[in-house]
Design the sequence.
């Protein structure tokens, strides 16, 4: 087994199911002592609301000590390289370092130079394995076995690390994945694709909507997000009374990706994903750290 989690492929199916079994117990939100005496460092070179706080809460619920490095106030601003930052933090003896970085591949490279477990909290447009795992966990929670379940992923898939992690896991668990978006948001892949949200809604048992990743666009892709929303916003009018679940990793562009009414609808799993995220990250921390 890998001591790092830089890509969803670092975990085999059996390990994922073990992690999910542990996560189900952690859903009770009780404090435990499973990682008492362990040290976890969060380094986020990109902004985050959910992932950073979710990892911090997960670590604290397991009684680990947590250090959140404030990158804006760190010696990165004095010219220290990423590798020196990681090597110096590693020298302080953490059991895990959780890294988010705007460049793809940074967590993987760091994992070769440190003693601690590296956990990828999102690297560029490459991977967001813990988001992929919490999405998979949430879908298994509502559907049970995913074999043959139809999942449409809607939005800026080409620039989305969440989409990469979701696609790898969903196809491994034998779900049928449909990619939906304008042509310039769709990646080159053999997976089925459509430009029609209406068609996707007819097809899907669940939809994962994604934010337009404007920070990764070299050129503007739409005159405005409202133009994008005209074709790809999930509305009550579109989903009607269909038995369908709506997911989003956040942050949601409200009334661009999904309208207010759908977000408030009982078919929306958006906040359930967030709740599940803490339990899944607790289980991931336990899985990676206990083996050291
Ligand atoms: N889903 C997700 O990665 O959200 P944050 O950017 O807020 O961490």
Sequence:
């Amino acid at each position: 087994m890998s001591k790092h989690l830089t890509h969803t492929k670092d975990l085999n199916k059996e390990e994922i199911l073990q992690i999910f079994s542990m996560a189900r117990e952690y859903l009770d939100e009780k404090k435990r002592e499973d990682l008492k005496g362990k040290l976890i460092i969060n380094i986020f070179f990109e902004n985050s609301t959910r992932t950073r706080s979710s990892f911090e809460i997960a670590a604290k619920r397991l009684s680990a000590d947590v250090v959140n490095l404030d990158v804006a106030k760190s010696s990165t601003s004095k010219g220290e390289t990423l590798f020196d930052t990681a090597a110096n933090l590693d020298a302080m003896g953490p059991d895990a370092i959780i890294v988010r970085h705007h460049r793809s591949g940074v967590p993987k490279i760091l994992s070769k130079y440190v003693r601690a477990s590296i956990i990828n909290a999102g690297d560029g447009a490459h991977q967001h394995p813990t988001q992929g795992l919490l999405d998979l966990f949430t879908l298994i929670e509502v559907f049970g076995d995913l074999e043959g379940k139809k999942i449409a992923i809607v939005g800026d898939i080409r620039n989305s690390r969440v989409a990469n992690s979701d696609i790898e896991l969903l196809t491994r668990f034998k779900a049928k994945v449909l990619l939906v978006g304008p042509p310039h948001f769709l990646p080159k892949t053999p997976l089925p694709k459509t430009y029609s949200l209406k068609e996707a809604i007819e097809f899907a048992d669940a939809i994962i909507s994604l934010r337009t990743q404007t920070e990764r666009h070299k050129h503007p892709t739409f005159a405005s997000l409202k133009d994008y929303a005209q074709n790809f916003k999930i509305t009550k009018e579109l989903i009607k009374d269909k038995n369908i679940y709506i997911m989003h990793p956040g942050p949601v562009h409200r009334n661009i990706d999904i309208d207010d009414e759908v977000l408030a609808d009982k078919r929306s799993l958006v906040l359930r994903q967030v709740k599940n995220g803490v339990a899944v990250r607790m289980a991931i921390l336990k899985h990676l750290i206990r083996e050291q």
